[in-house]
Design goal:
Rossmann fold, alpha/beta, 14 helices, two-stranded parallel sheet, globular, 6-stranded parallel β-sheet
Length: 331
């Protein structure tokens, strides 16, 4: 079993300085993005569009063995990726995984590990949804769906890949959270609730995986012009149609706008997120930052992240859990 203080041993003053800098800015702006990724086996969830699709294509073109997963196969997006892999001779494999389905998660990860010849190097927990409205309007159908996808789905995937990662003594899990995993915007439904839960679960996992040589690196993107807005409008529109008037009557102006969000005015480059993750993958194990905000604009979660890290270290740094805490926070 790896030594519990491995991060401190690996992270010299320069590496720690880089990690702290990365935790306070978009990593893609502070570190070089690797040109090649040969030798890495990477599973990405939610690859039908958005960040997941960009990651699958970019990492495969850089030489990684990529497992692009998505739900509801067959579908055109899957065939497009398979055609791309064939035309460009990419080591890119499309696998069906609905992260809300226990059996598909288990079978999909097992297939990826069979092709990879063992435990995976990287899991990117990218699949997620949003359903906007006042919290009172969120019925149990919407509530269960968003938690099952954004929280339980990430838990299923982590549990599925961890035995293989532990067997090889290394690995990296990358949960895609959000700025809204640390700050809250009114009328965003349970999105922040799920991302807050994902952040807490991922941080705890980071501590518990230190003895196994496995890193957890949480990504906190701001708003980007991806298909997430289209999908959110679909879910929010469906909720509006079935919502009971007894709940919607308290928020008429907000309810009227449900399903009509417009993300097309956002101009940030969605490749910021794949680039930031690629840079983290390239970092030496044990030196990766626990949290990385990614956006060229405002990053309101940065001071919260700084205070949270300091509180954890001050509270538990000298306790029996100290080696786990200080390893993750690179102190």
């Amino acid at each position: 079993m790896p030594d519990i203080d491995r991060r401190s041993l690996l992270a010299g003053a320069a590496a720690t300085g880089v990690a702290l800098t990365a935790a306070n800015s978009a990593l893609a702006q502070t570190m070089a993005v690797p040109a090649r990724m040969e030798g890495k086996s990477i599973l990405v969830t939610g690859c039908s569009s958005g960040f997941g699709r960009l990651m699958a294509e970019d990492y495969a073109r850089k030489g990684a063995k990529v497992f692009a997963t998505m739900r509801n196969l067959p579908r055109p997006e899957a065939e497009e990726l398979r055609a791309l892999a064939k035309s460009e001779n990419l080591d890119l494999h499309v696998i069906e995984i609905d992260v809300t389905d226990d059996a598909q998660v288990a079978a999909g990860v097992a297939e990826a590990e069979r092709i990879a010849g063992g435990g995976l190097d990287v899991l990117v927990n990218n699949a997620g949804i949003g359903i906007s409205s006042p919290v009172e309007v969120q019925d149990m159908q919407a509530t269960q769906l968003i938690f099952d996808t954004n929280v339980f789905g990430c838990h299923r995937m982590a549990r599925a890949v961890l035995p293989g990662m532990r067997a090889r003594g290394s690995g990296l899990i990358v949960p895609i959270s959000s700025q809204l995993g640390r700050v809250i915007v009114p009328y965003s439904g349970h999105y922040s609730a799920t991302k807050f839960a994902l952040e807490a679960m991922s941080e705890q996992l980071a501590y518990e995986l230190v003895p196994h040589g496995i890193d957890v690196a949480i990504i906190e993107p701001g708003g980007y012009p991806t298909e997430v807005w289209v999908n959110r409008n679909i879910y929010s529109g469906q909720l509006k149609e079935r919502a009971a008037e007894i709940h919607t009557s308290g928020y008429p102006q907000i309810v009227a706008r449900m399903g009509e969000e417009d993300g097309t005015t956002r101009t940030a480059d969605p490749m910021d997120v794949p680039n930031a993750i690629a840079a983290i993958i390239a970092m030496p194990p044990g030196t990766r930052p626990l949290r990385t905000p990614v956006h060229p604009g405002n990053k309101p979660q940065v001071p919260i992240n700084e205070v949270s890290s300091r509180v954890q270290v001050d509270w538990l740094g000298q306790s029996p859990f100290g080696p786990l805490i200080t390893a993750v926070h690179n102190v």
